[in-house]
Amino acid sequence: MIESKKDAKDFEYIANTYARFPVLIEKGSGIRLWDEDGKEYLDFTSGIAVCNLGHSNKEIIETVKEQLERLFHISNLYWTGPQLELARLLCENSCMDQCFFCNSGAEAVEAAIKLCRKFGHDTKGSDAYEIITLQGSFHGRTLAAITATGQPVYQRGFEPLPDGFTHVPINDIKALELAFGPRTCAIILEPIQGEGGVRPLDDEFLFAARRLCDDHNCLLVFDEVQVGMGRTGTLFAYEQTPVEPDVMCLAKALGNGLPIGAMLAKKNVMSHFTPGTHASTFGGNPVVCKAAIKVLEIMLRPGQLEKVREKGVLFRQKLLNLQNEIDTIKEIRGKGLIQAIEFDHEVPEIANFLIKKGFLTILSHKKILRLLPPFQVEEGHMDALIQAIKDFFKK
User: Is residue 311 located within the same domain as residue 291?
Assistant: First the structure.
């Protein structure tokens, strides 16, 4: 149990769905967080790829304050200026034409799944509902999203799962080709698998996915919930691949901490969503849209994403140097400011060790340290984390 100034009974009112660290965070600024006792932490998680522009970003705070004084909420039966402006910014700076707004990454994926099935029904017939996804993927926690997710650990206990999903190994072109059939309507993939261990997809595999979708009149969907919004050093991760998707899912860093999701698509694809086919009460809320507009404005400033790329190269080189010093490091993977250290054996205690040293990190599969610092991370922060990792292996 956490030692806290709060009443111990207060902790019993929260559902036990997270294996939480014994820390109660009170405030944050940039890359730094402080707990209720005033202890400082360097956040190498960004709230799991959410606060890309740092905690308590002052520009976003001022923008939200102004919008709160104008309009909190209005039904999507009406238009609002922030929603229109955000959709325009997203489309003008991507290969997409139209947006559907929701509240989270899982909802964006759900919207994409529904759009793919509707597309399949409309263009190929009611049997064209099957979607191919990848082993090791992660697409969210709803029933359809965990079924799309290629990790059985998230599916156990929730059977029977929805029908119509096939999983193939990452970067296996032959398996992908064999998975296609007359019932296939789409492929959904992450250009870099996030929760799966920061695993980039090969260009050849992406070429094959694009070709197969074109040949079979299917949709290619990129789930960029974790790797979009500047995380890889370009606004969207697909920009560093040789292909363009037909549909793209965003969330997390789009609102820098406020809940917003978006499913973007080409106009000819989104046309299969007509009034009444999909909806969201809070999707496109004017407050969170205004925050997302400011997020985009900041990210699109000259040199902003170039700095992310430069810091990513620096961070990766430091991690590769660390690999040369620590024999148990199997591989360093990543792009921009999403990097991972994979160890050759399970190290379940490393995350607790690092948090005691003042660093927040994410441990996947008990042996992959996933590192996603806010864009304000500096070389000194990187060096401090790497020294702490060295200390762990010296103990």
Answer: no
- Res 1: pLDDT: 58
Q: How far is residue 8 from each of residues 23, 333, 335, measured CA to CA in Å?
A: 13, 41, 42
80 close to 286: Cβ distance less than 8 angstroms: yes
**Are residues 195 and 249 located together in one domain of the fold?**
yes
State the residue for tokens 């170039």: 306
Active site includes 138?
yes
Task: Count the domains in the chain.
Answer: 2
Catalytic site includes residue 366: no
Whole domain around residue 199: which residue ranges?
71-299
Residues 112/323, Cβ–Cβ less than 8 Å: no
Last residue of a domain, one of 299, 316, 344: 299
pLDDT tens-digit series, residues 254-291: 999 999 999 999 999 999 999 999 999 999 999 999 99
Cα Rg for the chain, rounded, in angstroms? 21
Single-letter code of the amino acid located at 123: T
Ranges assigned E (strand) in the chain: 25-29, 32-35, 40-43, 98-102, 130-134, 165-168, 184-189, 192-193, 199-200, 219-223, 247-250, 261-265, 329-335, 338-343, 359-360, 362-364, 368-371
User: Do 75 and 108 fall within a single domain?
Assistant: yes
pLDDT band, residue 195 (cuts 50/70/90): very high
Of 44, 138, 273, 343, which residue is the catalytic one?
138
The verdict on 30 and 97 lying in the same domain is no
User: Rounded distance, CA 42 to CA 77, Å?
Assistant: 43
- Given the residues 118, 119, 205, 223, the one annotated as active site: 223
Domain CATH for 367: 3.90.1150.10
Pairing of strands 192-193, 359-360: unpaired
Q: Which of 118, 252, 294, 311 is catalytic?
A: 252
Q: How many whole angstroms separate alpha carbon 112 and alpha carbon 224?
A: 12
Domain with 226 in it: what CATH number?
3.40.640.10
**58-109: per-residue pLDDT in tens?**
999 999 999 999 999 999 999 999 999 999 999 999 999 999 999 999 999 9
Tell me: do 119 and 195 sit in the same domain.
yes
Domain boundary residue, one of 276, 299, 322? 299
**255, two tokens:** 């609102």
